[in-house]
Amino acid sequence: MKIFRRLFTLFVFLFFVSLSFAEEQPIRFAWLSDTHLGVTTAARDLSKAVYDINSMDDIDFIILSGDITETGNSTELELAKAILDSLKKPYYIIPGNHDTKWSESGCTKFSRLWGNDKFVFEYRGYCFIGLHQGPIMRMGDGHFAPEDLRWLDSVLISLPNKEQPLIFVTHYPLDSSVDNWYELLDRAKYYNTKVILTGHGHRNTAYNFEGIPGVMGRSSLRDSDSVGGYNIIEIQPDSIFFFERTTGSETRSAWHKVSLEQKDYCTDTTKYERPDFSVNRRYPDVKVKWTFETNYTIASAPAIWENYVIIGNSSGVVYALSLKDGTKRWSFKTGKGVYSTPEIADGKVVFGSSNGSIYCINISDGKLFWKLTTQAPVVAAPRIKDGVVFIGSSDGKFRAINLDTGELLWEFIGVGGFVETKPLIYQEKVIFGAWDTFLYALNIKDGSLAWKWSNDRPGVLYSPAACWPVASKNKVFIVAPDRFMTAIDAGTGKTVWRSNLHRVREAIGISADGSSVYARCMTGTLLAFSSSSSTPQLLWFTPCGYGYDIDPSMPMEKDGFVFFGTKNGLVIALYAQTGAVKWQYRVGVALVNTVAPVDANHVIVSDMDGRVMMIESLL
Is residue 258 included in any domain, yes or no? Predict the structure, then answer.
């Protein structure tokens, strides 16, 4: 009996010792970032990292902090999913800008594969929260979407207690490379945030995000090394340790440590940088006349017809607003994101949806006239000419559709990448770029190929695909991410001239009389070129002071003035003849899409924060 009691006592003692030991075991997880499936060695580097992680029994889970693919196309995403699904432990994943900016699916494929583009989970008392900053479909700074911030608020308010330790995972670092970086930081400071993990920069770096520890993780790509690598994170009772591991080889000593001591961020009295709206005081006669909040990302331009403003958003809703006061007239639901700038003719509104359909609806009441279903999401903008709709897609086809009936008139099969641009109609040709390095010219009558132009750069990310081509004097003008402006013979497709003197990118426009071609620089300047010259002849240039900018907001002329927006919410109006600035007004912090001028004193703008506004100038 005594032996039994002793054995029982020993068993209980060992049980509690083992329980205590288990509680003190560190949390240990692998952290991968910027895997860029589509780059030459990316699939091999990721596969080796997965195999390596699977060989370690003490890894609890895996986190991936964005840029999973190089261009966000379905093939790359499906390959990434196949490789990652061979992990033996759970993994949690968010997209990065490479997954969202060049998304042929309108950013739907990522969520279809992984169930969401955000994550939240708890592990041994810690809450891990992952959300990305896009940008969705347009080139600009990172941006926390309004719908994602609402999701984050719902997660934070549901925490069992405010003292639960939090670890955030984003793609961009939380600095001014994200236009509304403070939206997450201001929330994180009210909770027990321990660290913010980011990717994007491809290197291991320690940060301080307004007092909150931040850490950027390396890319899993090998770069110039023979193999890739990743980080292993170990959460001990008093600190978080960061170890870099060479895939299949060694784990080095900790390169960084974050203390887990309790911090009260709200007692910090430091005045941190916030967006500057002082420019608005310089132009007191410019104001926002009305605003309509859709509460979801808008990544398309508004369209105007009579007293209607038409716009779509990422929730798949298309709105008709009153031009006079911005009140809602009607809405139409497609179920998937609408990133297609609408086109309106004869009282009919035409646009594409990420659900794969092209719609034509009645502008007076929002009722459906017809719908044409394609084999892939449609993020392209239509152009209507003489009762025919011309529109690209993501299924390798370009279509001509009867505006009245929805009947397919012809389709061109052979586009190598998805189309997002609004096509140009010029000299009986339909001209458009695609994310396959090419600019296409199709014969308007039957869709046959007239010519195809390329900049001879092998990378698809240099394609002339985002700009809306313009034409005059027998020349087609484009700009592209290779920083060249190009004039092309409209009849033959041969290059007339090319210039990279001014660091242009994806924003181009044309004067009402066709004599001037406008191009926006990445360095704060608007240019006007002669359309008739056989060489690049600069008519005027204006330093506008908007700084580094990559927003594809096309310069639009109306009644003698040129209007455009920037990546950080600034809208600018200039005199078309001289280039002199008339006014500037900052509507917010988010990217402004291509604007829609009403007249010399009114312009409709939309931004990534889901707002539609009328700016009025009394100058």
Answer: yes
3-state secondary structure 228-297: CEEEEEEECCCEEEEEEEECCCCECCCCEEEECCCCCHHHCCCCCCCCCCCHHHHCCCEEEEEEEECCCC
3-state SS, one letter per residue, for 90-136: CEEEECCHHHHCCCCCCCCHHHHHHCCCCEEEEECCEEEEECCCCCC
pTM above 0.90, yes or no: yes
pLDDT digits (tens, 9 = 90+) for 309-351: 999 999 999 999 999 999 999 999 999 999 999 999 999 999 9
- What pLDDT digit, counting tens, does each position of 286-306 carry? 999 999 999 999 999 999 999
To the nearest 5 percent, what fractions of the chain are helix, strand and coil?
Answer: 15, 40, 45
User: How many distinct structural domains can be found in the chain?
Assistant: 1
In a domain, 548, yes or no: no
User: Residue 66 sits in a domain of what CATH number?
Assistant: 3.60.21.10
* CA distances to 288, 583, 588 from 571, in Å: 11, 8, 10
Domain of residue 208: give its range. Answer: 26-267
Q: Quote the Cα angle for 65-69-74, to 5°.
A: 125
